[in-house]
Design goal:
The complex is a heterodimer of chains A (about 110) and B (about 110). Chain A is mainly β and about 110 residues long. Chain A contains no helices and eleven strands. In chain A, strands 2, 4, 5, 9, 10 and 11 form a six-stranded mixed β-sheet that branches. In chain A, strands 1-3-8-7-6 form a five-stranded antiparallel β-sheet, with no helix packed on it. The model of chain A has no long low-confidence stretch (mean pLDDT about 90). In chain B, strands 2, 4, 5, 6, 9, 10 and 11 form a seven-stranded mixed β-sheet that branches. In chain B, strands 1-3-8-7 form a four-stranded antiparallel β-sheet, with no helix packed on it. The chains are: A mainly beta (about 110), B mainly beta (about 110).
């Protein structure tokens, strides 16, 4: 079983839609959860991070972690064309490496 | 915007050539990383550095080598490029291992 599972999409939504992006993981040692956004031809940039189960909000973005189910989600409210990008979930467990999902490609049409 | 730079951005080269991918950061970060990213696949860590004169191999085996002679500079070298090395290479840095990693724009390498 892969350590991280993320549906690659692509996901296409109209402007203003609520978007839900999801990842599941298998390793209980994962403690520190992140979402990165990667625009075409750019490197990833950190969007949100959290240590604990529950919700964390930042503007239009909400990160949700359910450690008991080993499941994390990113919700985007009032999606904009500028949100069109690939979204990568990532974890840090023991050690130095970040474990990344394959990324979900999102396209928001105006 | 993060102050981390990679050159070249795109490189097409023939088999057997020696290449060096450059990565520089102006944030004074001790920790630097190289990731490999294939289309539709996960980023995988191939090298990292704790600081000057420190380099370690990452989780994904790679035929490349790295050096860290200056804090701001972390070049990656392939002695003899092969088509299997075709990929995107991303450099990152962080203040500490548990701090945010800032990524460069990447070098897209194609070996013919």
């Amino acid at each position: 079983q892969k350590e991280v599972e993320q549906d690659p999409g692509p996901l296409s939504v109209p402007e203003g839609a609520i978007v839900s992006l999801n990842c599941t993981y298998s390793n209980s040692a994962f403690q520190y959860f992140m979402w990165y956004r990667q625009y075409s031809r750019k490197g990833p940039e950190l969007l949100m991070y959290t240590y604990s189960s529950g919700n964390k909000e930042d503007g239009r973005f909400t990160a949700q972690v359910d450690k008991s189910s080993k499941y994390i989600s990113l919700f985007i409210r009032d999606s904009q064309p500028s949100d069109s990008a690939t979204y990568l979930c990532a974890w840090r467990g023991a050690g130095t490496a970040l474990i990344f999902g394959k990324g979900t490609t999102l396209s928001v049409s105006s | 915007e993060a102050d981390i730079y990679q050159t070249p951005r795109y490189l097409v080269i023939g088999t057997g050539k020696k290449i060096t991918l450059e990565c520089s950061q102006t944030m004074g970060h001790d920790k630097m990383y190289w990731y490999q990213q294939d289309p539709g696949m996960e980023l995988h860590l191939i090298h990292y550095s704790y600081g000057v004169n420190s380099t370690e191999k990452g989780d994904l085996s790679s035929e490349s080598t790295v050096s860290r002679i200056r804090t701001e500079h972390f070049p990656l070298t392939l002695e003899s490029a092969r088509p299997s090395h075709t990929s995107q290479y991303l450099c990152a840095s962080s203040e500490g291992f548990y701090n945010e990693q800032f990524f460069g724009p990447g070098t897209r390498l194609t070996v013919l």
